[in-house]
Each structure stands twice: as structure tokens, then as C-alpha cells.
Amino acid sequence: MYTQAMDTTAAGEAPKARRSAEEMQLQERFDARIDAGDFIEAKDWMPEHYRKTLVRQISQHAHSEIVGMLPEGNWISRAPTLKRKAILLAKVQDEGGHGLYLYAAAETLGTSRDQLFDALHTGRAKYSSIFNYPTLSWADMGTIGWLVDGAAIMNQVPICRCSYAPYARAMIRICREESFHQRQGFEALLTMMTKGTAAQKAMVQDAVNRWWWPSIMMFGPPDDESPNSAQSMRWGIKRVSNDELRQRFIDATVDQAKLLGVTLPDPDLKWNEARQSHDFGVIDWSEFKRVIAGDGPCNRERLAARVKAWNDGAWVRDAATAHANKQTMKEAA
Ligand code: FAQ
Q1: Cα 220 to averaged position of ligand 1 atoms, centre (Å)
Q2: Pick from 209, 183, 216, 331: nearest CA to 282
Q3: Which of 85, 144, 206, 307 could share a disulfide with 148, CB 3.0–4.6 Å?
Q4: Is the pTM of this model over 0.85?
Q5: What is the pLDDT of residues 7-20, one digit of tens each?
Q6: Ligand 1 proximal residues by C-beta, below 6 Å
């Protein structure tokens, strides 16, 4: 049920048993362009598997952005000051915008937005595991900015060089905004840790304890259990592996945690001089698998919220379509 595979074969089209000489030539030219580090544009020829992989990854990414608005949206009305409310409102709006750029990038590959939403609403599409965890206190807002946006940037900066140009272009703007998101989160936590009461400091530590492991799971399964990585790296869709990005994130975050004065909840986390990196404890991959299979703490709630928003918005879509039709008829007359 929870697979993001999307059938891009046109209705009635029979699978080709043998590839034509022309197709093989196109394939060779495509491979050579990838090897040369060229960017592929929407109108360029591309293998079906490349197209399908991009639709899978970009739509999963788009869904993550709009589902990712839900855990934070929950706190807009409870932000402690007007300044924090304005920042959070702007951040959640940015996430909606990121979703729109990404849906538009996926549409350039020939899959309609209706198809993409249908896959999300019927549970066939994935979105990031991280957004299936609850936001229990105000400190969760700072922690999401610091850790979740921090992990998102680490993963997304290399995608600015993705071989598919419309995705790469969308990522450049998204990364700039994510960088602001990460910094506002860190600053919110720093304020609580330096000026807050003992109870507020404890609230930050509790949030970090709950979000740490899910954040490092965001990078996906270990490389040797990642079925898509080898091909995606070959095609330049992914530039850096899941494990390498996870390691870079952990290495970057340890010093930030020290600056904040919080403890990362991993007793095995320590500097390894020989590797010039941090060793860390065993990740509970059974939890990750459970969450991406639809059984995390908030999966049902998140999906229900998206389906409700879609149904509640039907009259807006109908009105916009009626208005557009009226304009077209007026212009034709
Ligand atoms: N959650 O073979 P791989 C954000 C699935 S945006 C759920 O390694 P791949 C902004 C994967 O789809 C966060 N599923 O897969 C924000 C595949 O299943 P499938 C989202 C996951 O694609 C911040 C299967 O496991 N970012 O946070 C996850 O090569 C704050 C096997 O895995 C992106 O989407 C997961 N964590 O690598 C918003 C970035 N990990 O499809 C609001 C772009 C893996 O075969 C607030 N995406 N799976 O059925 C990517 O870089 C890649 O798609 C990976 C996965 C690295 C996520």
C-alpha cells in the first residue's frame, strides 16, 4: 500500500519488448550528458525509469513540505510573543511555497497535480517520516527549526546540483529559506536556554530528546539497505549518500548542542579521532519502518488533515474553474 511507485505508462501502451536502435542512441546520448555533468531539461529525452524516479522523489518531497506545515501550524495561535508568531507564520507559509515549487517541478515531468494529490490522499505516496511525530510544547518549534530544518538543508543543498534542472532550480530558493528556518529555530532555543527559567530549559531538553533520533532517520535507510540510492547516484539525482549526509549532520550538530547547553540523547555519541567524525549509537530502524508503513504516532491524523483540507477546498477550486471558464468565454465573444 505504501509505495510511491507511479505508473507513467500511457493507458493502453504495451511494454516494449525490444528497444529500437533510435531509443538506444537516445539512451547513450543521455548517459553521456549525465557523465559530463550536464543538466537535463523538461523537454529533453530521458529514460522512463529516470522520469519515474524523479516523480517519486520530487512528489515525496513536495508532500513532505505541505504535511510538514501541520505540526507547526498547530502552534501559531499559541506562540509566546507577537515576534515569534510572525516568524512561525512566515515559516509555515514558506513551507507551503516550497510544496508549490516542487509540485510544479514534478508537473514538468508529465504527472498532473491531481494525480500527485490523489496518491497522497489515498496513502500510496510517502512523505517524510519526521512529520508523523507530535509537537507537544513550544520548545518543539525551536527544535524542529534547529534539527529538522538543519537535516533538511544538509540533504537538500546537494540537490541544488541535481541533474534534473527544474528540480535543481527549485531547490536553490528552497535552501535559502530553509537556512533562515534553521537559524530562527536555533535562536529561539538559545533564548530559552540562556534567558529562560529552569522549567523552560527542561522543556528544550525534553524536545531535543524526542526529536533527535527521528531527525537522523530523515536521511533514509542505511546505504546498504537503500534500494534507490545506487541508480539515483548514477543519474546525479542524489549527489551524496544517505549515510554520508547523516554523518555530516551529526558532526555539524554536536558543537551546536554544546553551544546551546543541551545533551543529545545518545550515550554512544563520541568523537572518533581516527575517522575524524563522531561515532553514534544504533538507530532503531524498526521504528523508522513502522512510521513509513503508516503506523507512526500521527500518520492517521496527518493524512486525515490533508484530506479534510482538500475536501473543504473543493468549492474554491470549483469557483476558480468557473471564473476561468467565464473569462475564456468572454474573451472568445
Ligand atoms: N521518510 O532507497 P531510499 C523538510 C523511503 S523536507 C519517509 O534511500 P531515496 C522541510 C523512500 O522514499 C523533508 N520515507 O530512497 C521541512 C523509499 O521508498 P519508495 C523531505 C523515506 O528516495 C522542514 C524507501 O524509503 N525531504 O523537512 C524516508 O533514494 C521543517 C527506501 O529509501 C526530501 O524529500 C523518510 N525519511 O532516498 C518542512 C528531500 N527515507 O519511494 C517543514 C528529497 C527514505 O521506494 C518543517 N528526497 N524513505 O517507496 C531525498 O533526498 C530522498 O528521497 C531521501 C530517500 C533521502 C529522503
Answers
A1: 6
A2: 216
A3: 144
A4: yes
A5: 444 444 445 556 78
A6: 3-4, 56-57, 60-61, 64-65, 68, 95, 126, 128-129, 144, 148-149, 152, 155-156, 217-221, 226-229, 232, 238, 242, 292
Q: How many CB atoms lie within 10 A of CB 183?
A: 14
Candidate of 60, 95, 299 to mutate for ligand 1, largest count of ligand atoms within 8 Å of Cβ? 60
- CA 56 from chain centre, in angstroms, equals 12
Quote the CA–CA distance of 219 and 234 in Å, as a whole number: 18
Compute, in angstroms, the gap from residue 262 CA to the centroid of ligand 1: 27
**Torsion sign (Cα): 61, 66, 70, 71:** positive
- Taking only the tens place, the pLDDT of each residue in 265-294 is 999 999 999 999 999 999 999 999 999 999
Q: What is the DSSP string of 112-152?
A: -HHHHHHHHHTT-S---GGGGS---STHHHHHIIIIIIHHH
Q: Are 287 and 221 in contact (CB under 8 A)?
A: no
Which pLDDT score is estimated for 18? 64
- Tens-place pLDDT, residues 321-333: 999 999 999 999 8
CB 124 within 8 A of CB 193: no
How far apart are the C-alpha atoms of 192 and 208, rounded to whole Å?
Answer: 13
The residue type of 284 is D
Rounded CA separation 79/65 (Å): 21
Instruction: Identify the three-state secondary structure at position 277.
Output: strand
Beta bridge partners of 279: 270
What separation in Å is there between the alpha carbon of 91 and the centre of ligand 1? 21
The whole-angstrom separation of Cα 224 and Cα 98 is 30
Q: Is the Cα dihedral 253, 87, 297, 245 positive or negative?
A: negative
Amino acid at 12: G
